[in-house]
Amino acid sequence: MQPIFALPIYYLLIEPVWAFCGTSFNVVFFYMTWATLVLSHSALRVELVGTATVRVLCYALPSLLFFLFDILTPSAAVLLKAQGEYGLPAGNKRGRIRKKDLKVAGWALFNLTLGIVVQAAVEHALASQFRKVRLVKVTLKLPLPWTLVLDLFWGLLFREILSYTIHRCILHTNNPLARLHRTWYHSLRAPYPLTAHYDHPLVYLVGRWLPTILPVFLRRLHMLSYIVYLGLVSLEETFAYSGYSPMPTGFFIGGMARNTEAHLHSAGKGNFGPWGVLDWMLSTNVEEEFEE
């Protein structure tokens, strides 16, 4: 059996952008490449390699680099932190690398891997019981540009609703999952790189993985729509939990990052959604209460 990483995933991630922005020849070439991938590899293989690749490139790798930058060069990192020294993993620029910080990074990467494993198990179960039912559609037919835009809109909207509801109604009420969430994630001083996926594994699956993957199933996203959707979510998590003040797209991502910090510093009194839209509509948004 061929190794799983023999799949030319480059074409899955790079070629869509090139194809849609290029000539009709590029579109035809991309479709031929896509058809070759679909016909020569199983749908499960395409989905899992695509998922792992996007997660590594858009979340794990940049977050790990940011984390190493914070712990190895804190004097330089503190200049970029919105909360100064308090936003560093050690809490100050003279602090040493702590075992707890490495533990947080280890659990975050473990949870990320766990989510992909659970996704594979769910897909295998669906394929065994319902042959034509899948989380992600891997078909020869490609989504049209406006279909892709609609998929992204509904996917991100469903994720916002699910994240807000689960976070507020399950992870911040009186139950075992809420207590685990409080003793794990809310033991952090401040968000810093990799903490987006740090929590007890059970809490992670309910509060982070489920709101991300369920909209994909409800909307029946095509693989290409799913790749773009997952890439946007991964980049959002990378920057919103980085603790840095300079942000791409400035106000938008920067506002999400400040909301994330305020949620942690307020001990979970508000800011339950990733984008803050439902918090604003339902008056559960909280302002920054940080005091160094």
Automatic annotation (TrEMBL):
Localization of this protein: Membrane
UniProt keywords, alphabetically: Membrane, Transmembrane, Transmembrane helix
GO cellular component: membrane
GO MF annotations in UniProt: iron ion binding; oxidoreductase activity
Cited InterPro entries: Fatty_acid_hydroxylase (IPR006694), Sterol_Desaturase_Related (IPR050307)
Annotated ranges, domain Fatty acid hydroxylase: 154-284
Highest taxon above the source species: Eukaryota
Regions crossing the membrane: 12-34, 54-80, 101-122
Record carries keyword Transmembrane: yes
GO BP, sorted A to Z: lipid biosynthetic process
Protein name: Sterol desaturase family
Organism encoding this protein: Aspergillus saccharolyticus JOP 1030-1
